[in-house]
Amino acid sequence: MNGYLFAGYSAILVLIGVYLGYQHYRLGRLSRELAHLREELGADEGRELSGEG
Amino acid sequence: MSVEVESRMTQEAAPRVSGRDFLGAGETRRFLRSQAVLGGLTAVALIVALYMVFLYAPPEREMGEIQRLFYFHVASGWLAMVAFLVVFAGSLMFLWRGRLKYDRWAEASAGIGVLFTTIVLVTGPLWARPIWNTWWTWEPRLTSSLVLWIMYAAYLLLRGNFPESRKKYQICSVYAIIAFLDVPLVFFSVRRMRDAEVYRGLHPVVISANKIDLEPEMILTLIVSCLAFTLLYALLWRFRLRVGMVRDEIWRIRRVLMERE
């Protein structure tokens, strides 16, 4: 295969892969943070209902 | 970011909750299932496109094998135009209707547009070097493509470096509408300049209003590549939109927790 052609398609693959990988990482990190905050919110609501807060 | 500004912003940014399960386990499962279906379709379409690019389409008579870069180079350009059109439409709708979901559409699409403009700017010189013995010339289409990349990269920087507020979204929307003026400039630059006696660029024009200067197999391969990339856009856009939704929900919960303290 022509070297320039190989470089071109490799670059396409790498750029899309990096973008998708980064967004996947972000979504994972944010989802964990959301789950943690919801737990915190739930615990907070629980304390309010039981009159502790 | 000050608590007051974040509080005001999150009030505005809070997504419309459609039910108790918003971004919950069940809703996430449904999202992942639909993304898996879309991802599968995209993968099949890209494999078919790659098969056609390397095995179905005949080599170009003068350029030889390197011309096979053309299919994904043009498809990336097409996808960048679609992405910037969505940024433009989302920004316009946000200014008109004032609903944040339109701003989020634009935000999700801008990064994808920059990504595929980068691909165009990388594959273009790799194609030009062996054929025209140069990586780059400052001709209209190449220069306007670079300007387009810079303008939308600046849009992303603008979004990332200013405190969250409705004012910021309005400024970004106005900027995105102005930046979109460069898109037709890129598209028509070669057409306008190719007949001009004063300047002739290197960039080839194979698709014009009157004819397509390609073999039928090449046209079919180009169409399949563009369709595959359109599916890829839908996949990436929904993914990026999801990132924004989860981030907005985090902001909303933080605001509730801050108000309770």
Can you offer a commentary on this structure?
The complex is a heterodimer of chains A (53) and B (261). Chain A is built from 1 helix and no strands. Chain A is an all-alpha fold and 53 residues long. The longest helix of chain A is centred in the middle third of the chain and has 47 residues. Chain A is rod-shaped and about 75 Å long. Chain B has a single domain, classed as Four Helix Bundle (Hemerythrin (Met), subunit A). The interface between A and B is medium-sized, with 26 and 36 residues.
Write the layout of secondary structure elements.
The complex is a heterodimer of chains A (53) and B (261).
Chain A: H1 3-49
Chain B: H1 3-13, H2 25-56, H3 69-97, H4 100-132, H5 140-161, H6 166-179, H7 182-193, H8 216-260
Helix pairs in contact in B: 1-8, 2-8, 3-4, 3-6, 3-8, 4-5, 4-8, 5-6, 5-7
Q: Give the number of DSSP strands of chain B.
A: 0
Task: Tell me about the largest β-sheet of chain B.
Answer: none
Work out the helicity level of chain B. Answer: over 70%
Strand content of chain A: under 5%
Most extensive interface: pair and counts?
Answer: A-B, 26 and 36 residues
Structural class of chain A: mainly alpha
Compact summary:
Chain A is mostly helical and 53 residues long. Helices cover 89% and strands 0% of the residues of chain A.
Give the key terms.
heterodimer; A: 53 residues; mainly alpha; B: mainly alpha; Four Helix Bundle (Hemerythrin (Met), subunit A); disordered N terminus
